[in-house]
Amino acid sequence: MISIKHLSKTFHNPDGSIVTVLKDVNCDIDKGEVISIIGPSGTGKSTLLRALNMLEPPTSGQILVDGEDITAKGYRLDVLRRRMGMVFQSFNLFEHMTVIENIIYAPIRLLGLSEADARAEAMTLLRKVGMSQKADVYPSSLSGGQKQRVAIARSLAMHPEVILFDEPTSALDPTMVGEVLSVIRQLASEGLTMLIVTHEMRFARDVSTRIFFMYDGIIYEDGSPGQIFEHPVHSVTKSFVNRIQKLVFEISDDEFDLLEMHSEMNRFCIKYNIAEKAAEAIPVADDMIQNHMASFRPLTFRLTYTELTGETALDFMVEGLTESPFAGGNVPIAVSARTKDIIQEPTARGFRIKILL
Ligand code: ADP
Ligand code: MG
């Protein structure tokens, strides 16, 4: 359906510098595929999506859609944009129009639908994304998650053959990520062709038929979710997909602000969708800091989360320590009873207790 051949994009900045963001992108995408595009920021993921619908015309190369080169002179961009919908991080709703007016605007003007037909279909789409009750309100009264669901319905109203999503959940409050992902998940199950730039690794693994890992201006690795996440070929892919999120505290004395630490731990757990872990992690952290490791200062405490495996751990590290801080190396029952596993190990610079929740 879509074939990208030797696509490149170079930007000439006003200060005279030149940056080649896409070097040589090649791929073929079939109808019905759900492709998640992952990779570090600044590697050209957004630029690739924007090139695909010619918001950012490529410097060289070809993009064939059903065999037609959309980069060719004279190719009609209005036709292209009808065929390829785009959903942005920042929603881009028309703020002066109600929800339903946002949805019917383009179908009436560009598809020639009657207002009655457009409204009827808009209501069907709003029901699909769970927003039919809000048809007549203005976007300003909606939450970010609701706005994004409306933006998805608006895109669907044009009956696109492909929808491009550019980090559709990145601007959302963490509590609203799930509602948007579940709408996208439903569209995937219905066979809509989609390209999704996302940082949500588990979502990407679950929903996609294929993953593109972008790095260094190319599709560095392309494969099934199983290949990319479990058996990546390249080491950069491997370290990217297995990356660990960390929250670090340096506890140097007893003036340390535990309550602030609790808030930050809560925020971290909500952000990574492990809100339930906060209630387990906080009492263990307090107990370790205030009781079992009270005499070890400075103490470095880290809360870590490996998104792909879901592993959540508490690390306590003391520099210069060579053996277990626990008497006889025995983990206090109060701690072990509340945790899955505990690893005690010397590190290059000291000693670490790693508690798995
Ligand atoms: P990603 O979406 O992977 O984070 P982008 O495609 O947004 O990456 O950007 C890749 C690089 O291209 C960045 O270094 C960015 O600064 C640069 N870039 C993107 N758009 C422009 C532009 N319009 N002009 C100049 N540089 C740009
Ligand atoms: Mg981007």
Give an overview in words.
- It is a single chain.
- This protein is an alpha/beta fold.
- It has two domains: 2-241, Rossmann fold; 244-356, Heat Shock Protein 90 (2-Layer Sandwich), CATH 3.30.565.
- The protein is 34% helix and 28% strand.
- It has helices at residues 45-52, 77-83, 99-110, 115-128, 144-156, 177-189, 201-207, 225-230, 235-241, 258-271, 275-292, 333-336; strands at residues 2-12, 18-29, 34-38, 60-65, 68-69, 84-87, 162-166, 193-197, 210-215, 218-223, 244-251, 299-306, 311-319, 341-346, 350-356.
- The strands form three sheets. Strands 6-7-8-3-9-10 form a six-stranded mixed β-sheet, sandwiched between helices.
- Helix 3 (99-110) packs across helix 4, helix 3 (99-110) runs parallel beside helix 5 (144-156) and helix 5 (144-156) packs parallel to helix 6 (177-189).
- The two termini are 46 Å apart.
- Adenosine-5'-diphosphate binds at residues 11, 13, 19, 21, 41-47.
- Magnesium ion binds at residues 45-46, 167.
Topology, pairings included?
Layout: E1 2-12, E2 18-29, E3 34-38, H1 45-52, E4 60-65, E5 68-69, H2 77-83, E6 84-87, H3 99-110, H4 115-128, H5 144-156, E7 162-166, H6 177-189, E8 193-197, H7 201-207, E9 210-215, E10 218-223, H8 225-230, H9 235-241, E11 244-251, H10 258-271, H11 275-292, E12 299-306, E13 311-319, H12 333-336, E14 341-346, E15 350-356
Parallel strand pairs: 3-8, 3-9, 6-7, 7-8
Antiparallel strand pairs: 1-2, 1-4, 4-5, 9-10, 11-12, 12-13, 13-15, 14-15
Helix pairs in contact: 3-4, 3-5, 4-5, 5-6, 10-11
